[in-house]
Fold:
Amino acid sequence: MNKLSLIALSASLTAALSFTAAVPVDAATLRTDATVDGDTVHLGDLFDDVGDKAGQPVGRAPAPGRRASYDAGFLVRLASFHQLDWRPASQYDRVVLTRGSTVVGAERIRDVVAQELAARSEADRLDVDLDNKLLELHLPSDQPATLKLESVTYDQIQGRFSAVVVAPAEGPEQGRTAISGRAAAIVEVPVLTRRIKPGEVITASDIGYTEVRMNRIGAELLRDADELVGQTPRRQISADTPVRARDLQQPQVVAKGALVTMVLQHKSMMLTAQGKALEGGSDGAVIRVVNTMSNRTVEAVVVGPNQVSVTRPGATVLN
Structure:
């Protein structure tokens, strides 16, 4: 403030104080900091000891969560108008007034977005990030911290969303703001709780769960634990690793090179012979087997441990 301004302010203060000294007055003291909850500022919010004038309105309060500053010039005019006995100690006297509010933070907004988008996807839950990570909504102190979303869009492939947040969720609208961000769909998938080698059969006690982002899983990633139980890995699988369908196979009951019993069931006749498996196989698998007596190779169905059923009719395959 330059010298001319200081002189003008001093003259204004002197004139105002001269006016207040000529009329009946109430003693008053200036409040330096104050908080109001409503949308109106009253005389008692700025001055103490003003008696029954405390409830007289003097202006509109700032928006919830915002501040307003009243300088010495304004306060002198205000005191004069309401006939208060108050003089500023200097031109730097002021009151900082804060409007109280109910604060709705980014975490609460993320929760509301996650609940809304979860109904639009197959995810177990959603991991939501707001573009404006410091977003806050300030509502009047007497309003509940409830929210609702309008104009929601969600691109599951890109993982982007946008919406308008309206508060509170019910009753007269107190605030709205546009938001955007990323929403990653999270799903639980079964994993092995220990390292399992080929040939070991997976049981229910070997299975746990981990969370993965849906856009990072392929079509073959297994999501149902029942699809793992009773299977064996084609290759060693480490613990806590999501499992793909092609990682598993039925346990082999016939190993490659094993001696097997070849069975031919035809009407009331059953013939058996010894063979050698040229391939390994699980129950129901079709493998090649060579008859160790005739050295003929046939196709057979694995029907049990080291036992196959000859699929071609006729007894000659066993000769």
Notes: Confidence is low (pLDDT under 50) at residues 1-26.
